[in-house]
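seq/struct pair 1
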Amino acid sequence: MRRVTGHHNLRLKELRQAFRHSELTSDGHCAIEGVMLVEEALRSGQRLGTVFFRESERPLAEKLLPQINSHVETLLLPNSLFDSVVPSDSPQGVAALVKLRPHPPEQIFERATAGPIVVAAGLQDPGNLGTVLRSAEAFGAAGVFLTEGTVSLYNSKVLRGSAGSIFRLPAMQIASGELVPRLRSNDVRLLATSSHKGTPLPEVAWKLPLAIFIGNEGAGLPRDLMHQMDETVMIPHAAALESLNAGVAGSIVLYEFARNRK
């Protein structure tokens, strides 16, 4: 490990910018933090660019270093410098720049004969999107498309909430105006979730290929997008409840798909 004490290290600047703006670096790396997420990246065979350790976490560094390729740059930072860069309120002492494996849209369509396509259409809460990514992998989704208005895939809370699914599940940003025609050309049926009306969840026919649209937490799907749906599905719940959390609702629908397919 190489000790870095100044704020001007190039890789440290890239880590700070990637976290701050929830975006990829100029050479295509995303920023992650936390023991579990770094271990998941290693377990999933992701290519690490640089790994950053907090100086007080030398035992953690000694545990992880044998798992990290010897060609990967590893930097040791003073506690205050590390804490100033990572967004977590309780840093676990490790962060990394990771080159995510690219997934072209065609890969999701190729997988759509085995599982549904998930479309996050305006999800703004990073915890909800992280939950949707995690459930999409758990219940056999083909992949996840993110349309305009959805929180960045590279938001630190999204990445943490995905619990490593981001490293294995194809997920990418695409405009709805481009996505819907591509879904139609691939004979994909469009299904939207709703709180108040539609086909009750137990009565849905889970025929593939299928795209499940999960809308904004408060407003749902945009009206023009809702008009293009083939079916709306409603999750029955207590009448006193206005609606379900978007991440929970998406997870229930994905579970019901998996249960019925089995």
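seq/struct pair 2
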Amino acid sequence: MMQSHIDFALASPEILLLVFGLAILLIDAVSTHPERKPTFILTLLALGVLTVVSLVQWNSGAVGRTFNGLYVADNLSHLLKVASYIAVAVTLVYGRVYAQARDMLRGGELYVLTLMALLGQMVMISAGNLISIYLGLELMSLALYALIALRRDDVVATEAAMKYFVLGALASGFLLYGMSMVYGATGQLDIAEISKVVAAGQQQELALVFGVVFLVAGLAFKLGAVPFHMWVPDVYQGSPTAVTLILGAAPKLAAFAIALRLLVEGLHGLAADWQPMLMILAVLSLAIGNLTAIAQTNFKRMLAYSTISHVGFVLLGLMSGAVAGKPDASAQAYGSALFYMLVYVLTTLGTFGMILLLSRQGFECEQIDDLKGLNRRSPWHAAILLLLMFSLTGIPPMVGFYAKLAVLQVLIDAGHVALAVIAVLFSLIGAFYYLRVVKVVYFDEPVAEVGAVSASCGQRGVLSLNGALILVLGILPGGLMALCVHAIQTSLGL
């Protein structure tokens, strides 16, 4: 892609989102509706418009670089942005009743801050420069810090916000220090130019390798990989569940995007240096995530450790690329990691959405025991939770099975058979705590004081669609996988 003149049309989704966010902020300031319904509807409308704009750009082949290389529009960015819009919209639909019951809608901050976090994610996804990666990251992080602490009278949520703020600042420092060392070693901030310098062998080797170490550490923080996972269980458990879902879905796509931009697009020539690091992070994440999840009685905390183990699988996909002389194999590996991340976000939306729908005024459905006898109270919700747990376990024909299979296939193709065996063993360990949830839902006696499940038609419809996609994509995964591999091939120059 040639570097173009300043082209505002390429960045129209970000510009539109900023305009929508400011307009919604002003409208909310004069709104007197106690439930903030106009703000909610306008937010969903904005996300709908953005989805259409990005799909039109994607369909028309709008690709290129603008703002002196700071911004990149390509198939990968279009795919991840559309997935992010959908994830945020679904999150807000699930979380509306929950937020209202907990007095989180006194103002429209929940919606406006979520849109600003999304804006940061979009900048990260389309970043073509180290500067724009950092700006997007900070914009997203600052909005998320505020969201976690939105319930100012909740001590647990405030503590979670402080933990995320301190550790997030540390992660940002790691990334920024790594970026400064990469700049010092290559003399470039532009990711495409860094790739050219590395390919030509003109970099200062030692400084660049140190820079890569700090970059990988910073990315591991943002993805929640061991040993940089300390914040994940505490923040997931301590945040209001609606905010946990905002934090656990779309931001993972943005973190994955900058991992691709930095490691695959910019530092592909140094794969021999960063692949062993990803391997260690992946194995540790699989081990600690799965083994610690077994001991959890809090459902949100169990899902947090489950997230850590799934990040391990994503990292295994990433480290299977850069196979010497085999660009197709590399694209397949990175495409499998992208597919796994999209499937993880889809499943996370369903699992935390279920917690949101089962919670009500004065009752947080956070303990695994709170799910006892769910099948007797609501067979439909129980069936969807069964699909979600089976997908996370990797049981066919759920999409989680195909996602795991795709990563294992590229691992074996890259010659990492031992790692594939380790991944399968830890997946079997993980099956224990997922199937324990199914056992509680279907075979335990219901808790007397927990009443019937009540949810709006919109929430039930979205949850049903969420569950159906888990099954349909598992039976027909080829289309989404081909889309992922094509996005990687056309965007990252493989």
